[in-house]
Write a structure and sequence with these properties.
By secondary structure, the chain is α/β, with parallel strands linked by helices. The chain folds into 3 domains: about 5-80, Udp-n-acetylmuramoylalanyl-d-glutamate--2,6- Diaminopimelate Ligase, Chain: A, domain 1; about 90-320, Mur-like, catalytic domain (UDP-N-acetylmuramoyl-L-alanine:D-glutamate ligase); about 330-475, Mur ligase, C-terminal domain (Protein-Tyrosine Phosphatase, Chain A, Alpha-Beta Complex). The protein contains 17 helices and 22 strands. Strands 9-10-8-11-12-13-14-15-16 form a 9-stranded mixed sheet, with helices on both faces. A 6-stranded mixed sheet has the order 17-18-22-19-20-21, with helices on both faces. The chain has a 5-stranded mixed sheet with strand order 2-7-6-5-4. The N and C termini lie far apart (about 50 Å). The chain binds adenosine-5'-diphosphate and magnesium ion.
């Protein structure tokens, strides 16, 4: 973070300094005592399993100058606050205000981009991060740092040299994104889609749209709202913002759009990026047609940040997958291909992954699917529908993993897949249920043959990335 004295930190967060708290934060801000380096500020977060306050001594040993904490214990100088997470947000807000302020110390103004949506936030953030980095110093969070802790930590990674600050914004209810925008108000706001992620908590898709739209409501008059014109609930947010609206998508009505979309033999999309009068060829390195929408949103944000269309197209074409367990396509030595998309799942992302699987050349397509969490009352129907859609998408073998995923197999069977017969048998569509990952691994070890492509996907809590790793290990040196 930018250098700040502990007195300045205390003032920014409204905290009280312990008598030994003198000095300056010269390093970074972190909530993980194991990541502390000399000069850092350690934030003692009271978590569900561990309480950061138990690690004040460890942070001191690692060289922390001080902690943001509720209960000082003498091990480390402290800025004492009631709620360390809220204080972290206030610290980030103070730093952001300073960096976004007129001119900036290096003669440029920081451009902050916020990204939200039900699916594709991290994928879009990773694309845009790589695009903006070609134009100037960019801070973009690792993985999915999109909540009240991850977002301020990302803001605090920025300093006077930073040109572009990229923020992923997650939401599980009304007010969440508004709160994140109070930490760091974006100049450019991107809304990707409104789907059914966390539908159980929200209640309805319209309610999700209300919550996601808080991003465009927070934008200033001089800002830009990048809205997906192919999603009615997203383009419907246009009246909620003072900012200039840039519609993106496949339709002619979109200002930043993709024409001539085609997938290559590895399932990667190429298209012509059309923006204003400019046209430029893009060939994505990331897999799946759903990445076209993400790339268009990233392109519109980069154009709003001042980049030229040619430069945007070139940088998009060079961007590689950054975050793990999202459409990681790996071919085993024995010729079986594993597609690890196990980071998370909801109905829309499942469908995107099935479409991507359909786009890959294969002798046989296998979808190893676990359940989708947090869908609320519609969950049973959604799992059934997914099973049907898997068969419709041309999946030859559906493997439903775990008791919560049984409905997926039921749906596949209802759509004409068969339960019996050889799993590795001919052209018949098949669907099987297995109780857990171990059983899935056993079955797959038996049935996979060269030329098969296996998609592995479920909600985060089911941990199917372990199965994907097992499948890759099983094929190593085969
Ligand atoms: N634009 C999109 N539309 C639908 N599904 C998508 C889209 N982008 C990504 N996905 C799917 O969602 C999964 C999660 O993607 P990710 O970028 O991590 O989203 P988020 O950060 O919003 O959770 C991916 O593995 C992919 O299957
Ligand atoms: Mg994410």
């Amino acid at each position: 973070m930018i250098q700040m004295s502990l007195a300045e930190v205390a003032e920014a967060v409204g905290g009280r300094l312990t008598p030994d708290a003198v000095g300056t934060v010269a390093g970074k801000v972190t909530v993980d005592s194991r990541a502390v380096a000399p000069g850092d500020l350690f934030v003692a977060v009271p978590g569900e399993r561990v309480d950061g306050h138990d690690f004040l001594a460890a942070a001191a040993d690692a060289g922390a100058v001080a902690a943001l904490a509720t209960r000082p214990d003498g091990a480390l100088p402290c800025v004492v606050v009631d709620e360390p997470v809220a204080a972290l947000g206030r610290l980030a807000a103070a730093v952001h205000t300073r960096l976004a302020g007129a001119g900036g110390a290096r003669g440029h103004r920081l451009v902050t981009v916020g990204i939200t949506g039900s699916s594709g936030k991290t994928s879009t953030k990773d694309l845009l991060g790589q695009v903006l980095a070609t134009a100037g110093a960019t801070v973009s969070p690792p993985g999915s740092y999109n909540n009240d802790i991850g977002l301020p930590l990302t803001v605090l990674d920025a300093d006077e040299d930073t040109r572009f600050l990229l923020l992923e914004m997650g939401s599980r209810g009304r007010g969440h994104i508004a709160r994140l925008c109070r930490v760091a108000r974006p100049d450019v706001g991107v809304v990707l889609n409104v789907g059914s992620a966390h539908l159980g908590e929200f209640g309805s898709a319209d309610e999700i749209a209300v919550a996601k739209g808080e991003l465009v409501e927070a934008l200033p008059a001089g800002g830009t709202a990048v809205l997906n014109a192919d999603d009615p609930r997203v383009i419907g947010m246009a009246p909620r913002t003072r900012a200039r609206v840039v519609p993106t998508g496949r339709s002619a009505a979109a200002d930043v759009r993709a024409e001539d979309v085609a997938l290559d033999e590895a399932g990667r999309a190429g298209f012509t990026l059309v923006a204003g009068g400019a046209r430029a060829a893009v060939r994505l390195q990331v897999v799946g047609e759903h990445q076209v929408a993400n790339a268009l949103s990233a392109a519109a944000a980069a154009l709003a940040a001042g980049m030229a269309p040619d430069a945007v197209a070139a940088a998009l074409s060079a961007a590689v997958p950054r975050s793990r367990w999202r459409m990681e396509v790996t071919r085993r030595d024995d010729g079986v291909t594993v597609v690890n998309d196990a980071y998370n799942a909801n109905p829309e992302s499942m469908r995107a992954a099935l479409a991507a699987l359909a786009g890959l050349p294969a002798r046989r397509r296998v979808a190893v699917l676990g359940a989708m969490a947090e869908l609320g009352p519609g969950a049973a129907d959604e799992h059934e529908r997914l099973g049907r859609d898997a068969v419709a998408a041309g999946v030859d073998l559906v493997v439903a993993v775990g008791p919560d995923a049984v409905g997926i197999a039921d749906g596949a069977l209802a759509a004409g897949a068969r339960e019996d017969g050889d799993a590795d048998g001919g052209a018949d569509r098949r669907a099987v249920r297995v109780p857990d990952r171990a059983a899935a691994r056993e079955l797959l070890t038996e049935v996979l043959v060269p030329g098969d492509v296996v998609l592995v996907k479920a909600s985060r809590s089911y941990g199917l990335e372990v199965l994907a790793a097992d499948l890759l290990a099983a094929g190593a040196g085969a």
